[in-house]
Amino acid sequence: MSKKAKLKKTLVEQILDKANIPYQSLAINALKDDLPSDIQKSTIYKTLALSGDKTGPVIGILPITEQLSEKKLAKLTHNKKVTMIPQKDLKKTTGYVHGANNPVGIRQKHKFPMFFDQRALEDESIIISAGELGRSININSRALADFVQASFADIKE
Question: Which residue(s) pair with 52 in the sheet?
């Protein structure tokens, strides 16, 4: 492989390597909607950071083709309501910018409650941000959820 074609591993990939969790590196940007033909949009997951009125930050992870149910996530986290963290506060809260949020990196610094939509169990293998814009990983959803101590629940509209 030529030097130009080889991608430098992201911090998320380095963390997964150290934990011996297999994944496949991908150079895609789901925000730009320019996906290879072999990737279904419904297998790409977004990591959303919200704030609960009682608990503070909570993380919801679901397919980019779905909408998060704030009511369901609030009930799961024992909040009256949860609201999206404004983009201007995202990096300060999670350590990542919009489009680069990922459960692995967030879990390394914060113990925020995390919930994967139960659809991730059906998909088994999901694509999620690798912590940098334009970089993603394909990973087993159960292995990822176990590693970041996340639960599975119905969190979509």
Answer: 56, 82
Contacts of 10 (CB under 8 A, 6+ apart): 130, 131, 132, 135
> What is the model's pTM?
0.89
Alpha-carbon dihedral 141, 147, 153, 154, rounded to 10 degrees: -40
> What per-residue confidence (pLDDT) applies to 31?
67
Which stretches of the chain score pLDDT less than 50?
1-3
Sequence-distant (6+) residues with CB within 8 A of 113 are: 55, 58, 59, 77, 151
Q: Is 104 exposed, middle or buried (0-12, 13-18, 19+ CB in 10 A)?
A: buried
